[in-house]
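Suppose you are handed only these lines of text.
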Amino acid sequence: MLILVTGGAGYIGSHTVKALRQAGHSPLVLDDFSSGRRAVVEDTLRVPFVEGRVGDGALVRSLLTGDHPACAGQRVEAVIHFAGRSIVGESWQRPAEYYGSNVSEALSLLQAVVEVGAAAASGPAPFIFSSSCAVYGLPRTLTLTEDHPLEPINPYGRSKRMVEELIRDLALAHGLPSIILRYFNAAGADPDGEIGEVHDPETHLIPRVLDAMTGRSPFLQIFGDDFDTPDGTGIRDYTHVCDLAEAHLLAVNRLLLRRAAPAADGAPVPFRTLVYNLGTGQGASVQEVIEAAKAVTGRGLLAHVAPRRGGDPPRLVACADRARGELGWEPRRSDLPTILADAWRWHQALPGR
Ligand code: UDP
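From them, the structure of the protein bound to uridine-5'-diphosphate can be written out as follows.
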């Protein structure tokens, strides 16, 4: 089945592309390679791809209808939308870029999906959206359920919340079968060592810990050791990127089962968008990540305590019971030793590490 994956050259996108292919689907990547890397899709995964923007309506329509040569005559049966900008700090410096890329372009994509769907006997193609725990803002409860209020505290989180709202409204009006996946902290790498995390600049904890261990950076900064947590450092719910990828497969399958053809009079059947947290329910502190990394790599590192990063909550941990219960999702590689062993294997293979 042909599945359009926007941002399929990025970190979570590329792992999902690999999982889709392993499950027998045909992923087709749309990426502008602004942060994702062409070599990942062209040389490593060797999947069909189109270089272009999600906001290019004519291009996206030609992909959805199967008229574009990259579709090899097949219609797109589902859309997984990863493309967008994802660095919280940058979203404060360049908010227009974030709203433009994450919101305006997503709206253009969604419009294309519902328009093409309106002309199709089976209605709009199922749509899966990469959201984030950043939509919750500062947690009011120890673990976050999907019903926690959405009070994002930065432009990145607000852009994700806006797209969630767009999706819900379009789903009700046009019967768009849709799932919103809210990721907690994506981490780790493909266990085969083919693909992994490469961000430039790298802001995430685990690759930075590993960089400090290989000497690529002189030391690690621990952003705050005075949080209200047992060891004072921030707690996050690290989830293996392959487990996240697996959740997308389950989401596609669930939507394909629920896809409803328009009623006899042609009116769309409203769809209530499904929302799932993807996390483990287990938090780990910065200190715990450092200790686990030492155990896995056998290396040490220099770490200095630095001031807190603006807007970093003390603790972000998912309640992912709904994804487990309704999607049958079971994180398999999301324990810290496995995450770190996979990340370390990938990290060592990177040039300059
Ligand atoms: N962190 C840190 N030093 C770093 C990068 C991150 O202490 O160089 C901390 C950060 O304050 C947070 C946790 O590690 O408590 C995870 O941060 P990351 O940027 O990986 O993900 P976020 O939760 O911000 O999306």
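What can we learn from it? The pocket of uridine-5'-diphosphate is lined by residues 185, 203-205, 208, 220-223, 234, 236, 286, 309, 312 (CB under 6 Å). The longest strand covers residues 26-31.
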